[in-house]
């Protein structure tokens, strides 16, 4: 479909939280939401990098209403502190964008394999803790950023902590499948309460994600190769953010939809994206939800329907 950031509707009076907004897709998403009048919270792990991002945003959108708040998705105490301190009674939009890609094995503060812990569990906990504000907005949206790389692997609910043999790309794929299963189950639970849950992916977009894993592993040749591929083949973060912004703001977005670039899932206008059959498994989505509540200690409380 022919849709650009110029089609984002007026967002005056609405509040949005964008995780991982210090660079790349998150920064572009935050900037364009602010450009259309939203009050935007840049949720960033590194406060200094977040401040630099805010300066860039304000340089491009001088009248933006935006602020930086610290959020470390690898630490559930930080997630709780962020949610507790968020200065708003209503939240119209939550963009679960932050993530890690194909990094060497490590664990979060709470003992989870880092990619599963950050990409899925941190966002699961954050969304649950912000749920009362989302419900208060009536018509709120939660957009979770996944990846076509989810097709590499299904979740392993028998090993949610990732304690068995670790492959960086398989761990990444499992976390991205988890994003889609979370989106599906949240849609089922939240739809009766007028909260929309959708997913999006950027295609192949040039960000720091591709080079970070090789750099952390000390593989300089691979890191240089990834940067070269980005320059030659990847779209810009501005283009990659368009499917995310579409899912976040377009009027015809459906529950549990998965939006991505329309040309082979890599480039082009936003449109419906292919997803692996296992991401449509309602039983798996329910099981992942139960596991996620147990691991994070965050339970979603929806009011009784009248």
Automatic annotation (TrEMBL):
The keyword Oxidoreductase applies. Belongs to the short-chain dehydrogenases/reductases (SDR) family. It holds the Pfam family adh_short. The lineage of its organism: Bacteria, Bacillati, Actinomycetota, Actinomycetes, Kitasatosporales. This is Oxidoreductase. Keywords: Oxidoreductase. The keyword Ligase does not apply. CDD domains: retinol-DH_like_SDR_c_like. SUPFAM superfamilies: NAD(P)-binding Rossmann-fold domains (SSF51735).
């Amino acid at each position: 479909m022919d849709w650009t950031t110029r089609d984002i509707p007026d967002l005056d009076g609405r509040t949005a939280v964008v995780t991982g907004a210090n660079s790349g897709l998150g920064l572009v998403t935050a900037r364009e939401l602010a450009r259309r009048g939203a009050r935007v919270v840049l949720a960033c792990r590194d406060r200094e990098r977040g401040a630099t991002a805010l300066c860039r945003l304000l340089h491009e959108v001088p009248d933006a209403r935006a602020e930086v708040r610290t959020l470390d998705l690898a630490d559930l105490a930080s997630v709780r502190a962020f949610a507790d301190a968020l200065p708003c009674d209503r939240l119209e939009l939550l963009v679960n964008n932050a993530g890690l890609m194909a990094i060497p094995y490590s664990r979060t503060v709470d003992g989870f394999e880092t990619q599963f812990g950050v990409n899925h569990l941190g966002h699961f906990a954050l969304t649950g803790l912000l749920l009362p504000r989302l419900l208060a907005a009536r018509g709120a949206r939660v957009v979770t950023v996944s990846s076509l790389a989810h097709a590499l692997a299904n979740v392993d609910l028998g090993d949610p902590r990732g304690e068995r043999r670790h492959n960086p790309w398989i761990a990444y794929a499992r976390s991205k499948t988890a994003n889609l299963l979370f989106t599906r189950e949240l849609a089922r639970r939240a739809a009766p309460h007028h909260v929309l849950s959708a997913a999006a992916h950027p295609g192949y977009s040039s960000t720091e994600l591709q080079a970070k894993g090789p750099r952390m592993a000390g593989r300089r040749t691979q890191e240089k190769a990834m940067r070269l591929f980005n320059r030659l083949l990847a779209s810009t973060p501005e283009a990659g953010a368009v499917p995310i912004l579409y899912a976040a703001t377009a009027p015809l977005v459906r529950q549990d939809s998965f939006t991505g670039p329309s040309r082979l899932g890599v480039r082009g206008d936003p449109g419906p994206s292919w997803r692996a059959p296992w991401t449509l498994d309602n039983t798996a989505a329910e099981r992942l939800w139960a596991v996620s509540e147990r691991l994070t200690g965050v339970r979603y409380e929806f009011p009784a329907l009248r």
